[in-house]
Write a structure and sequence with these properties.
Layout (H helix, E strand, L loop, with lengths): L1 H22 L1 E2 L2 H4 L3 H14 L7 H8 L5 H11 E4 L2 E4 L20 E4 L4 E8 L12 E10 L2 E9 L3 H11 L3 H12 L7 H7 L1
Length: 203
């Protein structure tokens, strides 16, 4: 009897693992025709390049337009672009808003995750080492790409678990007694411990 219960529990855990990881899964380049992590890096370089020299406002927007929605561009410009004697540019700041986070890009820590149809998050978990001039709480930072009529564009940047993914996690919790049982077994099963972080991030 005990063996049957253990076997059934293992099957339930495996089934729940499949469901959890299916909610938000890593993005393949073939799905979008783009390498979303590489594109995020290029978008960051576009933002940073605006500090190199003074430009006209039209030129500023031309640098940003391939990567960002109009709404996001407006917020970025209003917050970061300064008018000078010969045009517009950005100036460095430890607290600049709407800049893409300093993702690792190359070491596998930066992930591209599909949340819903037409929405992809590029995200990474940051841990404060206490060495910099600015301290922050440990947690995820993310960039949200959405599919527009002009292709994939960044429309938001934030910290914490993305709201779309958090909503899906709560939905799984409220599906009913069976879902709750599966979740409880999954989260307390030692044998599936390596997948817990994947669930909290992607589930």
């Amino acid at each position: 009897m005990i063996l049957k219960l253990v076997g059934r529990g293992a099957l339930l855990s495996a089934a729940f693992l499949f469901i959890a990881l299916a909610v938000s899964v890593p993005v393949e380049a073939s799905e979008t025709g783009m390498d979303m992590i590489s594109e995020t890096k290029d978008a960051f370089h576009a933002q940073v390049s605006l500090s190199e020299k003074e430009r006209s406002m039209d030129a500023v927007k031309q640098v940003l337009a391939p990567y960002f929605t109009n709404g996001f561009m407006d917020k970025f410009i209003n917050e970061n672009i300064v008018q000078t004697d010969n045009g517009f540019q950005t100036f460095g700041s430890d607290f600049a808003q709407y800049f893409i986070p300093f993702f690792s890009y190359e070491d596998g820590k930066t992930k591209a995750v599909k949340s819903t149809q037409g929405t992809i998050y590029v995200m990474e978990k940051f841990v404060d080492d206490g060495e910099g001039p600015v301290s922050f709480e440990d947690g995820y930072q993310w960039v949200r790409w959405i599919q527009t009529d002009d292709g994939w564009k960044i429309d938001d940047i934030g910290m914490g678990t993305p709201e779309d993914i958090a909503v899906k996690k709560e939905t799984a919790k409220k599906d009913g007694p069976i879902a709750n049982l599966l979740m409880g077994h999954f989260l307390t099963s030692f044998s599936f411990y390596p997948f817990k972080e994947a669930f909290y991030l992607f589930g």
